[in-house]
Amino acid sequence: MPRRTAERRLVPGDVVRAAAVGSLAVGIVTFGSVAGALFFLVLGGVLVPRFLRLPAALDLCFGSSLLLAAWASQLGWYEAVPWLDLLVHAVCTGLVAVVGVIIMTRGQMLEVGAHPRRAKAGLVAITSAIGALSAIVWELGEWVGHTYLDEGIDVGYSDTIADLAFGLSGAMLAGLALAAQDQAWGRGHDI
After folding, report:
1. Where are the transmembrane segments (predicted)?
2. Read out DSSP for 22-65?
3. How far does CA 147 lie from the centroid of its chain?
4. DSSP 81
5. Cut 0.90: pTM above it
């Protein structure tokens, strides 16, 4: 019985999920179907940490960053503050990479090695690779959105290369942060 109670307990990330539901409704009514599609994707994303029962801090950061990224797009913040787009790419990609590593670790696709130093180097590499892949998928999504949904979505060679560079940098930093966590990596504990 206590386990069921713990499963139903609200966590800070649930506030973000509620905001994502509200954002979906507001986005559709205020900005139209393209914004609705964006907020629908965000809603799906913010559900992932709850489903995976990720630590509360990661849940909150992950969901908040996705929601911020979507609202920044809709409210024109990227045009008003040009560096914000690059920061969002770094933070979101890093967090997506961390969640990807956790999924792979829990699914036993990655294993904590007997050699912590090599395991840490591998963790940085795989986190960077997951981040690079997610950055590429993100940029493909931007291109598809620009080409088929809304020409106002900013794409172009310089924008894409900068977004990829910052996304990869964020993933590499996230990998270094994961590797630095002795309690989570190299001692046999689940991430």
Report:
1. 20-44, 83-103, 123-141, 161-180
2. HHHHHHHHHH-HHHHHHHHHHHHHHHHHHHHT--HHHHHHHHHH
3. 24
4. S
5. no
Supply the angle between the helices 82-106 and 33-52 in degrees, to the nearest 10.
Answer: 40
**Residue of 131, 91, 118, 93 whose CA lies nearest to 185:** 118
pLDDT tens digits, one per residue of 144-176: 999 998 898 889 999 999 999 999 999 999 999
> Residues 152, 73: contact at Cβ < 8 Å?
no
Place of tokens 């992950």: 62
Query: CB under 8 Å to 27, separation ≥6 — which residues?
Result: 35, 36, 38, 39, 70, 74
User: Could you identify the residue written with the tokens 């990596």?
Assistant: 185
3's tokens: 């386990």
pLDDT in tens, 91-124: 999 999 999 999 998 998 887 665 677 788 889 9
Judged by DSSP in three states, 113 sits in coil
Tokens, residue 37 = 């599609």
Contact indicator for 165, 190 with CB cutoff of 8 Å:
no
* Residue boundaries of the structural domains of the chain: 1-75, 76-191
CA–CA separation, 119 vs 29, rounded Å?
49
